Amino acid sequence: MWTLFGSPGSGSAALEIALDRCRVPYRVLRAASWEPDSALDELRRANPLCQVPTLQFDDGSVMTESAAILIHLGLTFPASRLLPADDAARAQALRGLVFIAANCYAAIGVIDYPERWCEGGDEAVHERIRAGARRRLHLYWDLFADQFGAAPGLEGDPPGALGILAAVVSRWSGARAHLRQSRPALLTALEHIEANPAAAPVFKRHWPP
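The structure assignment produced for this chain is given below.
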C-alpha cells in the first residue's frame, strides 16, 4: 500500500488519476502546509519542503515532484499508457511535463508565496510580484499551447500524463480564464481531459461542480 500525501484542489489530483490507471493500491493522506489540522508532521518527515503531492512507497522510500512521479509511473507501468510508446512522441511528452514543472509550477509558487522572494516587502510590493508572476504564468501557458497543444499524449483516450498534469495545473491562478481568451483550443482540450471517464471522478472530488 503506497501513501499519497495530498489535499483537495492540489496537484495530488494528477497522481490519483495516474495511480488509478496503474492499478496500484494506495491511500491518500490529507496533508498540506496550509492545513494545520492535516497530517503535516508525517508529510514533513517524508518531504522537508512539505510539498504535495508526495508519494511514499511501501518500503518507506519517497518520490516528490509531480512530473518526476508521473514519468516514473509511466515508465514502470507501460500498460497504463501514461507515456506514449513511440520514442519521438514520448520525448515530447517528457519535455512538456518538465516544461510545466519548471515554468508553470514555479510561477504559481511565486504567486502563492511572494514573501519568499522579497524579504521585507510590504503587501503592495507582494501584489506587484504576484501581478508580474501571473502575467509570466499566462505567457507560459500560451507557449505551452503553441508547442504542445497537438502533442501526442496530451489528450488521447485515455489522456496521457502530459494532459493530466496540464489539466490540473491549469486550474490555478486564472490560467483557464486567460486561455479562454488567448488559446481557446487548448482550453477545450483540457476540458475534454477533465471530462474523460479515466479522470472525471478525481476532478469532481477535488473541484466539485
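Interim note for the steering committee: The chain has a mean pLDDT of 95. The first strand starts at residue 2 and ends at 6.
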